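Reviewers of the previous submission asked for a worked example of the structure-prediction workflow described in the proposal, so we include one complete record here. The input consisted solely of the amino acid sequence. No template or homolog information was supplied to the procedure at any stage.
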Amino acid sequence: MAAALECADAGAEVTLLESRSRLGGATFSIRRDGVWMDNGQHVFLRCCSAYRAFLERLGVTNDARLQDQLSIAVVEPGGRIARLSRTKLPPPLHLLPAIARFPFLSSRERVGIARAVRPLSRLDLRDPALDRRTFGDWLGERGQSAAAVDALWNLIVLPTVNLPAAEASLALSAKVFQTGLLERADAGDIGYAGVPLQQLHGGAATTALEQAGATVRVRTRVERIDRSGSGFAVAFDGDGLDADTVVLAVPHEEAQMLLPDGALANANELQYLGASPIVNLHVVYDSRVTDLRFAAGHRSPVQWVFDRTHGSGLESGQYLAVSLSCAREYLGYRVDELRAQFVPALEQLFPNAREAQVERFFVTRERRATFRQGPGTAALRPGPRTALPGLHLAGAWTNTGWPATMEGAVRSGLAAAREALSRDPLVRLEAAA
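From that input alone, the workflow returned the following structure tokens.
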């Protein structure tokens, strides 16, 4: 969507081919029993400048919520709430008062975390050695206890890199902390959709693209891309079109199959990017159980939980969405098994839930939500250019410098579009998603 809009705005003749029935990629909504449910809980930070500009281009900025000041509620069983909030001090001092007061760690662990912040902020993200080791190894060398990693470091790295610190690339983890928390005091303020994601992204982008003169074709799966003269022939559903330039914006597994011979020297290695799953639980109560808009769980299987009542279409009660990152262990669980584990876990965090009735309990599973962002992935992530002039790559898995996030996805689309436009400012562009 970002690539197509950028090119259409520049005057290119754009056709966007989408295999699904709607735009939105990995961010979409479904309606079930009268309730709009997002396929997963997606958040952004104030530092996500490309994504926020994308929302502005779509005209939906007011449909997103962005904190005035970072504040994360962390809840433990029994209902005790601690807050990680920033002050207006310059970084990294803006976080130190919150760390000093964080009750789920010992005094020694809090001091150790504070001492690790400065060396973390000084890591050179351009150093390829950072991608050859895990964030957990780096934290261990700086005396971080298992309790500190679980209570604080994984609180941030698990939902952003979709791996725990013990498995996550140091390079990507350091990017999260440096850009998201340590470069600017307000960088980590949290934003999220105030309406269903399909309305915020796919629906708004369809309208924006059509108004910009682009052609949008859904339920159109690209089957083959061949070189044709100075351009490309794109085949789909027994039909096809010719394009001067192609932006291929599909998951890395599909890109490997669609890329023409010679496009990437090591296209077969894309498979080694792997995948990491996310499981989301959708719990609808007959009454309100918490006043928190979102919270992280401590010493609980509940990682993050969001109040999605507003905008869901729910007329009474409360709708909570539980997001479980790197959820390998839960992929094989039946719905009743997940309900048996997580309904009591939510009751432990929110005591009012013990008096409420669960009216609906749904599960959505994203088995390949992101690529597996462990050590060694930097060398596998190609940039927007391929070896074939006019053929470009986009996707959060490409080399954006960011983890696989909405910000990374938008940045990849913009980078691919700019490469396409640099070849000829008025090309016929085909974007396959």
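The chain has three domains: 1-19+219-271+377-433, 28-86+189-211+275-370, 91-187. We consider this example representative of the routine output the project will generate in years two and three.
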